[in-house]
Amino acid sequence: MYRLLYPLRTYLIVSGRFGEEVNVMAADWVTVVSAKPFIVAVSIAPTRYTYHLVKKYREFVISVPSIDMVNDVWIVGSEKGPEKLKKTKFEFVHALKTMTPIIKNALANLECKVIGEHPYGDHVLFVGEVVAYSYREDAFRGGEPQLGIGFLAHIAYDKFTTISKEIITVKR
Ligand SMILES: Cc1cc2nc3c(=O)[nH]c(=O)nc-3n(C[C@H](O)[C@H](O)[C@H](O)COP(=O)(O)O)c2cc1C
After folding, report:
1. Is 33 within 8 Å of 46 (Cβ atoms)?
2. Which of 37, 107, 109, 119 could link 102 by a cystine bridge, Cβ 3.0 to 4.6 Å?
3. Confidence of residue 73 (pLDDT cuts 50, 70, 90)
Protein backbone atom coordinates (compact mmCIF):
# COMPACT_ATOMS: atom_id res chain seq x y z
CA MET A 1 0.00 0.00 0.00
CA TYR A 2 2.58 2.53 -1.11
CA ARG A 3 -0.31 4.94 -1.78
CA LEU A 4 -0.35 5.68 1.96
CA LEU A 5 2.68 7.88 1.28
CA TYR A 6 0.83 9.84 -1.42
CA PRO A 7 0.34 12.51 -2.72
CA LEU A 8 3.96 12.56 -3.95
CA ARG A 9 5.63 14.99 -6.31
CA THR A 10 6.08 13.70 -9.86
CA TYR A 11 9.34 14.12 -11.78
CA LEU A 12 10.63 13.20 -15.23
CA ILE A 13 13.65 10.94 -15.68
CA VAL A 14 15.51 11.70 -18.90
CA SER A 15 17.96 9.02 -20.09
CA GLY A 16 20.19 8.36 -23.09
CA ARG A 17 22.39 10.67 -25.16
CA PHE A 18 21.61 13.92 -26.94
CA GLY A 19 21.14 13.36 -30.69
CA GLU A 20 21.53 9.57 -30.42
CA GLU A 21 18.86 7.97 -28.23
CA VAL A 22 16.76 9.75 -25.64
CA ASN A 23 13.89 8.57 -23.48
CA VAL A 24 11.73 10.04 -20.72
CA MET A 25 9.62 8.38 -18.03
CA ALA A 26 7.57 9.76 -15.13
CA ALA A 27 8.82 8.97 -11.62
CA ASP A 28 7.33 9.62 -8.19
CA TRP A 29 9.92 7.62 -6.28
CA VAL A 30 12.66 10.22 -6.20
CA THR A 31 14.43 11.48 -3.09
CA VAL A 32 17.35 13.58 -1.82
CA VAL A 33 20.02 11.41 -0.18
CA SER A 34 22.73 13.96 0.73
CA ALA A 35 23.07 17.76 0.62
CA LYS A 36 26.89 17.99 0.43
CA PRO A 37 27.76 16.44 -1.89
CA PHE A 38 24.35 16.74 -3.53
CA ILE A 39 23.16 13.13 -4.00
CA VAL A 40 19.71 11.92 -5.08
CA ALA A 41 18.10 8.53 -5.70
CA VAL A 42 15.37 7.21 -7.97
CA SER A 43 13.68 3.83 -7.95
CA ILE A 44 13.29 2.41 -11.47
CA ALA A 45 11.73 -0.95 -12.33
CA PRO A 46 13.91 -3.17 -14.59
CA THR A 47 10.92 -3.49 -16.94
CA ARG A 48 11.27 0.20 -17.92
CA TYR A 49 13.05 1.15 -21.15
CA THR A 50 14.67 3.90 -19.04
CA TYR A 51 16.29 1.27 -16.82
CA HIS A 52 18.37 -0.04 -19.74
CA LEU A 53 19.50 3.44 -20.82
CA VAL A 54 20.53 4.38 -17.27
CA LYS A 55 22.46 1.10 -17.00
CA LYS A 56 24.11 1.76 -20.39
CA TYR A 57 25.19 5.40 -19.92
CA ARG A 58 25.48 5.57 -16.10
CA GLU A 59 23.74 8.95 -16.01
CA PHE A 60 20.25 10.44 -15.92
CA VAL A 61 18.54 13.81 -15.59
CA ILE A 62 15.74 14.60 -13.16
CA SER A 63 13.47 17.20 -14.77
CA VAL A 64 10.90 19.01 -12.67
CA PRO A 65 7.62 19.43 -14.60
CA SER A 66 4.87 21.95 -13.87
CA ILE A 67 1.14 21.17 -13.82
CA ASP A 68 0.72 22.55 -17.36
CA MET A 69 2.96 19.69 -18.59
CA VAL A 70 0.67 17.05 -17.05
CA ASN A 71 -0.59 15.61 -20.34
CA ASP A 72 2.94 14.95 -21.55
CA VAL A 73 3.87 13.58 -18.10
CA TRP A 74 1.02 11.12 -18.46
CA ILE A 75 2.15 10.02 -21.93
CA VAL A 76 5.71 9.28 -20.75
CA GLY A 77 4.38 7.67 -17.57
CA SER A 78 2.03 5.27 -19.36
CA GLU A 79 3.82 4.37 -22.61
CA LYS A 80 7.11 2.56 -23.14
CA GLY A 81 10.10 3.63 -25.20
CA PRO A 82 11.24 6.71 -27.17
CA GLU A 83 8.47 6.47 -29.83
CA LYS A 84 6.07 8.08 -27.33
CA LEU A 85 8.15 11.28 -27.36
CA LYS A 86 6.69 12.16 -30.78
CA LYS A 87 3.35 12.68 -29.04
CA THR A 88 4.83 15.14 -26.52
CA LYS A 89 5.95 18.77 -26.73
CA PHE A 90 9.21 18.14 -24.86
CA GLU A 91 12.13 20.06 -26.30
CA PHE A 92 15.57 18.69 -25.47
CA VAL A 93 18.62 20.87 -25.13
CA HIS A 94 22.25 20.18 -24.22
CA ALA A 95 22.96 19.72 -20.54
CA LEU A 96 25.86 21.43 -18.76
CA LYS A 97 27.72 18.29 -17.68
CA THR A 98 25.92 15.18 -18.94
CA MET A 99 25.45 13.76 -22.42
CA THR A 100 21.85 13.12 -21.38
CA PRO A 101 19.87 16.18 -22.48
CA ILE A 102 17.72 18.38 -20.26
CA ILE A 103 14.12 19.46 -20.95
CA LYS A 104 13.74 23.09 -21.97
CA ASN A 105 11.04 24.91 -19.97
CA ALA A 106 11.05 22.36 -17.14
CA LEU A 107 11.12 24.15 -13.78
CA ALA A 108 14.53 22.61 -13.03
CA ASN A 109 16.92 20.00 -14.42
CA LEU A 110 19.30 18.02 -12.22
CA GLU A 111 22.12 16.28 -14.09
CA CYS A 112 23.18 13.08 -12.33
CA LYS A 113 25.99 10.53 -12.64
CA VAL A 114 25.21 7.10 -11.24
CA ILE A 115 27.39 6.37 -8.18
CA GLY A 116 25.50 3.33 -6.92
CA GLU A 117 22.64 0.99 -7.62
CA HIS A 118 20.94 -1.74 -5.69
CA PRO A 119 17.86 -3.88 -6.36
CA TYR A 120 15.10 -3.72 -3.75
CA GLY A 121 12.04 -5.85 -4.46
CA ASP A 122 10.63 -5.09 -7.89
CA HIS A 123 12.65 -1.87 -8.42
CA VAL A 124 16.31 -0.88 -8.61
CA LEU A 125 17.40 2.13 -6.59
CA PHE A 126 19.82 4.28 -8.62
CA VAL A 127 21.84 6.70 -6.56
CA GLY A 128 23.15 9.69 -8.49
CA GLU A 129 25.51 12.53 -7.70
CA VAL A 130 24.14 15.81 -9.06
CA VAL A 131 27.05 17.13 -11.13
CA ALA A 132 25.17 20.20 -12.45
CA TYR A 133 21.74 21.77 -12.25
CA SER A 134 19.78 24.60 -13.80
CA TYR A 135 16.38 26.08 -12.99
CA ARG A 136 13.88 28.73 -13.95
CA GLU A 137 14.33 31.88 -11.90
CA ASP A 138 10.54 32.44 -11.84
CA ALA A 139 10.09 28.99 -10.22
CA PHE A 140 12.86 29.28 -7.60
CA ARG A 141 13.23 32.99 -6.85
CA GLY A 142 15.90 33.53 -4.22
CA GLY A 143 16.45 29.77 -4.16
CA GLU A 144 12.93 29.17 -2.77
CA PRO A 145 10.16 27.39 -4.70
CA GLN A 146 7.44 29.81 -5.87
CA LEU A 147 4.18 27.95 -5.30
CA GLY A 148 2.24 29.98 -7.88
CA ILE A 149 4.22 28.29 -10.66
CA GLY A 150 2.24 25.02 -10.23
CA PHE A 151 4.41 22.20 -8.90
CA LEU A 152 3.07 18.83 -9.97
CA ALA A 153 1.97 16.15 -7.50
CA HIS A 154 0.50 12.69 -8.08
CA ILE A 155 -2.56 11.31 -6.30
CA ALA A 156 -3.13 7.91 -8.01
CA TYR A 157 -3.22 6.43 -11.53
CA ASP A 158 -4.26 9.26 -13.88
CA LYS A 159 -5.07 11.78 -11.11
CA PHE A 160 -2.73 14.69 -10.42
CA THR A 161 -2.84 17.87 -8.38
CA THR A 162 -0.68 20.86 -7.61
CA ILE A 163 0.73 22.21 -4.35
CA SER A 164 -1.59 24.70 -2.64
CA LYS A 165 -0.43 28.31 -2.47
CA GLU A 166 -1.17 28.41 1.28
CA ILE A 167 1.97 29.02 3.33
CA ILE A 168 2.10 28.47 7.08
CA THR A 169 5.14 30.00 8.75
CA VAL A 170 5.64 28.34 12.14
CA LYS A 171 6.54 30.23 15.32
CA ARG A 172 10.22 29.72 16.20
C1 LIG B 1 2.95 9.64 -12.20
C2 LIG B 1 3.77 8.41 -12.45
C3 LIG B 1 4.84 8.10 -11.63
C4 LIG B 1 5.63 6.97 -11.86
N5 LIG B 1 6.68 6.70 -11.05
C6 LIG B 1 7.51 5.67 -11.34
C7 LIG B 1 8.68 5.43 -10.55
O8 LIG B 1 9.00 6.16 -9.61
N9 LIG B 1 9.47 4.37 -10.90
C10 LIG B 1 9.19 3.55 -11.96
O11 LIG B 1 9.94 2.59 -12.23
N12 LIG B 1 8.07 3.77 -12.72
C13 LIG B 1 7.26 4.81 -12.44
N14 LIG B 1 6.17 5.07 -13.24
C15 LIG B 1 5.91 4.20 -14.40
C16 LIG B 1 6.75 4.62 -15.64
O17 LIG B 1 6.79 6.02 -15.82
C18 LIG B 1 6.12 3.95 -16.87
O19 LIG B 1 6.18 2.55 -16.75
C20 LIG B 1 6.72 4.39 -18.18
O21 LIG B 1 5.90 3.95 -19.22
C22 LIG B 1 8.14 3.86 -18.36
O23 LIG B 1 8.63 4.33 -19.58
P24 LIG B 1 9.85 3.64 -20.34
O25 LIG B 1 9.56 2.15 -20.43
O26 LIG B 1 9.86 4.33 -21.69
O27 LIG B 1 11.08 3.95 -19.53
C28 LIG B 1 5.35 6.15 -12.98
C29 LIG B 1 4.24 6.44 -13.80
C30 LIG B 1 3.47 7.56 -13.54
C31 LIG B 1 2.31 7.88 -14.43
Report:
1. no
2. 109
3. very high
